[in-house]
Structure formats: C-alpha cells, structure tokens
Amino acid sequence: MMRPRGRNFVIALAAIIWIATVVISYRSVRAFESTPGAAADARASWPSNAGVERNLSGPTLVMLAHPHCSCSRASVAELAEVIARGPRNLQTVVFVFRPSDFPAGWERTAVWNAAEKLPNTRVVVDLDGAAARRFGAITSGQTFLYDRAGVLRFSGGITSARGHRGENSGRDSVIRIANTAAGFSTHSVFGCAIGGKS
After folding, report:
1. Cys bridge to 154: 72, 105, 145, 147, which one at CB 3.0-4.6 A?
2. pTM for this predicted structure
C-alpha cells in the first residue's frame, strides 16, 4: 500500500503533467491560428485570362476559397460584412476550389452555400486551382480588390487569424478602399493552401 506522502507526490506530479500539457496544447493552437498562409503573387491589374468579367461600373472583389477549410467559413462571413458596408456597385466573385479528379459537388459545402447567399456575388468552381494561379493566390481566403479600371487596390485576407471573425484591419481596408476608390493595402491571409485535397 502506498504511503500518503508517496500518493501525494504522484497526484502532484500528475497535476503538473496535466497542466503542462494543457499549456503546451493551448500555445500550439494559438500559434497555428496566428500563423498566416503564403502571401499571393498578386497581379497589379486584372488578369486578361481571369475567366470572368470584371465590373466596369465599380470595384470587383475576388476571393479564392477551399471548400473544406474551416478558415474559409470565417472569410466568407467577413466577406458578407464587406459587401454590406461597401458601395452598392461592388461586385464579387468567389472561386471555390475543386480537384478535377474529385466528383462534382465535392465543393458544395457550407462555404459554397454561404457565398451563394451573398448579394451581387457570383460563385464559380475553380477546377484544379486554375483561377487561383491566374490571380496569383496560394491560400484560401485570399481576397483581391480591383477598381473599375482593373487596378489592384487590395491583396490579402479579411480575417484577423485562422477561423476568426470580427473587426480586423484587412476587412476594414477593403471597405475603406472600395468606398473611396483610393489607396492600396495588404493584409496577412489565414487559411489552407489552395490545391490541397484534404
């Protein structure tokens, strides 16, 4: 039978190990959430081979999204806020990634459904990430804002961290630039790599 002193030592040791595990896990999660994805190789002007027409009467906002990336849901939620607070002539295109060897419909997740409900928004399948390559996007949630002349005004993400919704400088920059048609800004993008099948 274990002596009380020995039992107390074992309980204390187990408590220390448990607390250390919780702290390490928390720090790992926070580090992951706050680590941005790869920045885009953004085109300075609207790509001639974009695959969709840009808005000639106002700004065009383009978002690239991986349908199975949990961070994409936050990006689309922030996109809704941009549209609500942006100019009435803002038009949006959301390209949703699908590998060509996956069945049609694989891309129709909550991300697709949420994007489809946004006003003045066209949702397009991005087969094998072709549109992402044309625009220079690498990370899901990558957003580009082009003015009516096709000049790039914003490149980056519109969330503050992976899967986080709420006030952030990326989203606020897009809203400001879309409304004033002036300035240029970038922001870190948080999401999965476009092109991944997981």
Report:
1. 145
2. 0.80
